[in-house]
Amino acid sequence: MGEIMLLIFVFVIAGFLGVELISKVPSQLHTPLMSGTNAISGITIVGAMSATAVAVLAPSSTVGMVFGIIAIVLAAINVVGGYLVTDRMLGMFRKKEDRKK
Q: How many domains does the chain have?
C-alpha cells in the first residue's frame, strides 16, 4: 500500500511540474521544443516497457500490466505526434514549389 501511495505521489508531482514548466514556455518555442523532446519520449517508451515487463513477471500484476500498456501507448502517441508536428513545422520553411510535390 505504501508503494502505491508513493507512486501516486510521484505521478501527481510530475503532472504539476509538467504543467508549470509548459505554461512558462512562450508559444513560439513549443514546436521546436517538441521536436527536441522526441528523444526523451523515446526513453519514456523504454521505461514503460521495462516497468510493464516487471509487472508481467509479478504474480498478481493485472493493474501494473494495464498501467504499463497505457503508458506505452501514450508515450508512442507522443513520439508519433511530435514527429508529425515537426514535419509540418519544417514544411512551413520549404519553398512553394517543393510544397506542391
A: 1
- Phi, psi (degrees; rounded to nearest 5) at 60: -120, 85
Give the separation between CA 51 and CA 69, rounded to whole angstroms: 10
Joined together, the cell numbers standing for residue 50 give 521495462
Residues spanned by the domain of 78: 2-96
Is residue 101 in some structural domain? no
19 Ramachandran zone, left/alpha/beta (phi>0; psi -120 to 50): alpha
Q: Is the pTM of this model over 0.70?
A: no
C-alpha cell at 97: 514549389
CA–CA separation, 40 vs 52, rounded Å? Answer: 18
Write phi, then psi, for 28 (nearest 5 degrees): -70, -20
The pLDDT score that the predictor gives to residue 30 is 66
